[in-house]
Amino acid sequence: MISTPNYFHLSPCCVPQGMDEADSAAVSAPWLQDCVVSLSPCSDLMVIAKNHKAVFLSVKWRTDDGGREEMNLAVSWSGTLSTEEGESISSVICIPLASQKRSSTGRPDWTCVVVGFSSGYVRFYTETGVLLLAQLLNEDRVLRLKCRTYEIPRHPGVTEQHEELSILYPAALVTIDGFSLFQSLRACRNQVARAAAAGSEVVQPPPLAYKKWGLQDMDAIVDHSSVGIMTLCVFDQMKNASILGGFHASVKGNPPAMSQHITVGGGPYTGFYYAIEGSSQPLLSHVALAVASKLTSALFSAASGWLGWKKQSEEETTQKQRPKVEPATPLAVRFGLPDSRRHGESICLSPCNTLAGVTDDFGRVMLLDVGRGIAIRMWKGYRDAQLGWVQVSEGRGERESSPSAPLPRRHAQFLVIYAPRRGILEVWGTQQGPRVGAFTVGKHCRLLYAGYRLMGVNSVTSQGWQLHTQQVCLFDPATGALRTITVPFHLALSDKKSERAKDMHLLKRLTALLKNRELDPDILESEAQSILLDIKHPAIKKQVKRTNTRTHPPTERGQHIQGNFVHSSLLLFLSFRLWSLCLPIKVRLSPWEGAEGLEEELARVSITLQRYTQLTSGSRHSVSFAQDSPDASLPVQTFLSQMDCEGGKISVAPGPDAEWTQLGSFLFWGCLTGKVPLQKVCDKLQETGISPQQLLSLLLSVWLHREKEVLKRPDTARHLHTLLTALSSMKGAVEESWDVQCVSPWWQQVRSACVQSHSAAAALLAAIVSHHAAKANITSLAQAKFQSEWEAVSLELEQWAVCVRQLEDVLALQTLLCMPPPQGSPGGATPHCSVKSLLEGGRGISEADSVAKWVFRQALVLTEWSCFTLELLVSVCQRFPDSLSPDLLFAHCCWEYVVQWNKDPEEGRYLCWAVEHLKLVSSPHIQLGISSMMWNTFIVKRFSASAFLVEKVTCVTRLWSVCVLRIQDVGMGDAAMTSFMGSCVRLLQILMEADSGVEEVTPPELCVEEVWGGAEGPASIAELALEQKGVHYPLVQHHCLLASLLHAAMTFGLRVKPLSLFDSKGKNAFFRDLASIQLMPSGDMDPGLVSIRQEFLLRVLNAWVKTQVEAGEGEDPAAAQMGCGSGDKAWPSLCLDLGLLLQVSPDILLRHLVCELYNHGLDARAEQVMLEVEDKDVLGSQLLVLTGQRLSYSLLHSQTQTRPAMELLARLPPTLCTWLKAMDPSELACQSVPLTRTSRLVSRLIEILPENHGQYSLALHLLEAVEVLQGED
Asked: Which Pfam families does the record cross-reference, listed alphabetically (predicted)?
């Protein structure tokens, strides 16, 4: 949880109102996802569009119920924007236009709404929806509209960028110069205003001049950014010339100026385009070119009509004509970031045009260096992310007041990432900065980032302006709130190692603030207090103390501060805050009375307590004895034996827990149940002289050991509060000299008892009650000491807050662990946990390990989990967001299952579930480490034993001997051993995938919740996984190949010596450390070895086809024909993959598979596989024999011979008849095949056999014979 209220905030800005049902349906979260939304940088106009309709919302001031004025966005115009049939709105952008008046201070004159349509049209509107200009630039869908406005160059060497509007199409990019667009829009608006005033029709304006580039060498483009004009340095110019032209390349004198454009999409993932300035002239559509042959006359003629003296007939002719679309100038991609699997979704350029954020469909956010064209950082886990940038300038301070030349102000950039699937908004420092802020927002918000300011600004008109623009805003459709994002500059200096640098910056701000003579005293006090609270470094605190307590010379400013009461109070506060670090920070609150706050706190945890009570007070019965009950009468002898008297003072002698609890019940249970007057008991105990500490121990003992009875009596909490208050007021309980900023031994005793107790609910109730009692005690002491009504915030209360939070977490976890296991599950005793056990178990270990054991107990009926069980699991994960993050939880579940499997290897499902949980781990680093640990700790020994066992089992003929060998050597039977090999294959595949992915992402940072940061103990599974060495990919693949062969042999019951399928190098590499470099097989294998491998793979295919036939028996014939029966259909593709690794021709395997499928009557499946065969001639010859066997069975078999068949046999050519008689139908696995399938097979034969084939005529005769037989049937 990140909370930085002093550094970073989301402030409410304005609320959209007035949207009717036709435009917005209802203010529900998902509606915004289907709309196109654009917000003006000045936050004074928002456009929401969908399909062909749009709503314009403008700023209006409204007075709320409290009399305060607030800014709201209300509907100013709504309607339909589409004019062409079937077109829809695809992109919108709001461009504020600067005022040309000299008195302007930076506010926009008006805002133009630019709308792109699916038809290719781009239309320009006013804030009231009046059409100014429309132009067809390309006959394709407008993907994105983006704008670039003028920015004052930060350094003298930075190229001044021109204003520009860019329109992206799927294969083209159109750029319109900002200066000409600004002038045209102003003229259009003025002409529309004049026409509206005069009541005349609006004259069609001339088209805009533009440049159109045809983007090439990319498969798909979805977004772009126009960086602007750049000039290469001399070194880069000479480097490019040398690479492209070789040694004798010539270099021009001056590097050319180029416009840089970056696109994202696919193939490549990111493309960089460079258009040399002057290489393409601006294009004008045919409306201007048709008037005259020369450009000047064309423009003059068009402008004349625009100004009012154009003929009506010419206007009608122009409107009827379809605009001509100019061809694009080809522009090849200079270079890109190729990634065939990654597809970009959006790109967001930084304000200084040096960095860009890119999102993709893998859920990554990549930071690009625009100048170098490389990726410098990547964030993971941000699917459907939305990006924005915040640029912050350094405050005016020491740099402006430097005695020498004033130093330039520094600027910092922050990347804003909104992850809608997680509902979180994060702010990151660039380029390698940390995350400086994170906020939980809605899951259906929209991050609005313009990336530009006012259009029409230049270096002359911007002098003295203060541009009132927002950089990034977040729109929440559920609440209608529009929030701005503000980041202080000093966060750019703060990371894990530069806390001193941040505090030094705050010290400079404080010094400059105190030197400011014009600042209002109230503002000075509030800002100085805010800065002081932000300073954390002890050395800087001392420096501020010396600075503010030092005697200054009597200056005019000093005399003014000494004479001003507010300033004197401020200096007093600064000195008090800095040198008195142990004194309480006071917050003014209403006085606490009675147990009102206690009741609210108990109500907050009541739901969790009810769940815990429901699970712990179930129907399970136990045997108990009356004499062991805490309510049993206490004999006098026992009571006296527990009392000691030393020096005239009575004390309680320590004894066993049972006796201690019995004595506590005797003394306090009546008070807790309300049966005995509390005050009388306390007065009597105080008279005895027993130390309050022992009485407190007795009270806590009875409270914690009688948890079930406490939970059944809601009023016991109030009685406990009264007892604690009375005991703490006894002499010797809380020392009068106790400083509220120090830890009280009295209350520390209560906390120690609570954190050590396994009674989670009773401990939480005791902590909440004690927290309120301690708070009242501290408040009374502070009031007596400071004589004020302020509430003291002390170290004691901070420790209580942490303790209560820890106990709430433990109660949620214990509630989950108390869920009874279902019948038939492994079961076991319910584990118990406490704060102490979690802290001593390691950082994040005990929580994840406990939940993993609970998952193991419940996993046998995973699909039958109730909503109540899932709700409990989710609530626990929410309380431990770091310790029970998905990756850590899945890693611990994986380890728990593999440990349980190792105890009983016959339970192969445990190992399967372990591998399935391992697949769910998203971090490849953790996945790689867990896989390596599993392999080295549990798998490799049994895997090697299994391989050697299968190698020698071929010599054993008796079945019982095989079973005895497998159980003795491996500890598993046939079924468990087959499941084990399948799990080994999947584990090694995961290991290879993780090894390939570790280079793409950075290792995760393992952290724990803030309240559990003091945990100590052994390293967690994830930490051990991150410490594992990498693996040698070829060696892992080598073992995966062996596991796949063993799995195939065991699945289909094939006798094979698996190690004999490898040469000596391959055998020696087996069962070595996967991180070691071994001598692997390379080059062409021995043909004899390849032949053995081929024979084995063919046997696997034969066995698989038989299982498909068996799976189809008893099913629908059509389903069986299409292979819809049971059975794993991945074996053929697996055999092909194994063939590539074993140097077996895949085409041989495919041909054999086709023949086997036809042989077993699976013709439809065989036709599908036939499409992948390359050598159709050989396949045709093989299938010709199979066709002859089918026809021979139909014509010559004794049981199927008919008179028409005999007549047909007599008419056949002698060669065909002789050939059919030579066929042996007994080789067919499926002899009774319908003639329709045989006819289709012969037709396929004629298609694949060339006409010059030796057996082509035989195939024709077969086709004729089959057709005759079909006709007779």
From this structure: RAB3GAP2_C (PF14656), RAB3GAP2_N (PF14655)
Peptide bond into 268 cis (omega under 30): yes
DSSP designation for 758? S
For the ranges 225-229, 242-246, 783-787, the maximum mean pLDDT occurs at 225-229
d(CA 123, CA 84): 12
Pairing of β 16-17 and β 69-80 = parallel
Q: Token pair for residue 124? A: 């320009």
- Residue 380 main-chain phi, psi, to 5 deg: -115, 150
The tokens of 98 are what?
């600067």
Q: Which residues pair with 37 in a beta bridge?
A: 48
The whole-number average pLDDT for the span 1049-1068 is 88
Residues shown for the chain: 1273
What gap in Å lies between CA 739 and CA 794, rounded to an integer? 9
Helices and strands, number each (H, E), in the chain: 45, 34
Measured between alpha carbons, how far is 562 from 555 in angstroms, rounded to an integer? 11
Residue-wise pLDDT for 997-1009, tens only, equals 998 899 998 888 8
3-state helix, strand, coil in the chain (%, to 5): 45, 15, 35
pTM recorded for the entire structure: 0.53
Q: Is the pLDDT of residue 1218 over 90?
A: no
Identify the helix (H) or strand (E) that includes residue 215. strand 211-215
Give the C-alpha separation, 616 to 165, whole Å. Answer: 68
> d(Cα 855, Cα 910) in Å, to the nearest integer?
12
Q: What is the pLDDT of residue 587?
A: 28
1145 exposure class (CB count in 10 Å sphere: 0-12, 13-18, 19+): middle
User: Which two tokens mark 285?
Assistant: 């559509």
- Quick: pLDDT tens for 1007-1024: 888 888 887 878 888 889
The span from the CA of 459 to the CA of 437, in Å, is: 35
1112: helix, strand or coil: helix
CA-to-CA separations, 1030 to 587, 892, 932, in angstroms, rounded: 54, 21, 9
* DSSP-H helix ranges across 259-377: 286-289, 295-304, 312-320
Tell me the two tokens of residue 919: 């697949």
Element (H, E) at 449: strand 446-449
Distance CA 285, CA 208 (A): 8
Per-residue model confidence (pLDDT) at position 4: 32
Residue-wise pLDDT tens digits, 824-850: 566 567 788 888 888 888 877 788 888
Going by their DSSP bridges, the two strands 643-646 and 472-476 should be labelled as: unpaired
DSSP track, 829-896? PPP---HHHHHHT-TTHHHHHHHHHHHHHHGGGGGG--HHHHHHHHHHHHH-TTTT-HHHHHHHHHHH
Nearest to 660 by CA among 699, 687, 707, 710: 699
pLDDT of 1012? 85
Structure tokens at 832: 């118990």
The tokens of 1230 are what?
A: 């499926």
What six digits make up the tokens of 802? 């942490």
Kind of pairing between the strands at 329-331 and 270-276: unpaired
Task: Looking at 1053-1086, list the stretches that DSSP marks H as alpha helix, in order from N- to C-terminal side.
Answer: 1064-1069
Contact yes or no for 445/475 (Cβ under 8 A):
yes
- Predicted confidence at residue 88, as pLDDT, reads 93
- Read off the amino acid at residue 596: E
The answer, yes or no, to whether residue 297 has pLDDT greater than 80, is no
Q: What angle do CA 419, 424, 426 make, to 5 degrees?
A: 85
Which residues partner with 9 through β-bridges? Answer: 486
Question: Of 16-20, 409-413, 825-829, which has the strongest mean pLDDT?
Answer: 409-413
- Under DSSP, the state recorded for 905 is T
Gyration radius of the chain's alpha carbons: 41
CA distance 946 to 973: 11
Distances in Å between the alpha carbon of 1251 and those of 512, 667, 1124, 1182, 1261? Answer: 95, 109, 36, 17, 14
The residue to which tokens 């019951």 are assigned? 1053
* Beta strands 329-331 and 211-215, pairing class: parallel
Instruction: Band the pLDDT of 632: cuts 50, 70, 90.
Output: low
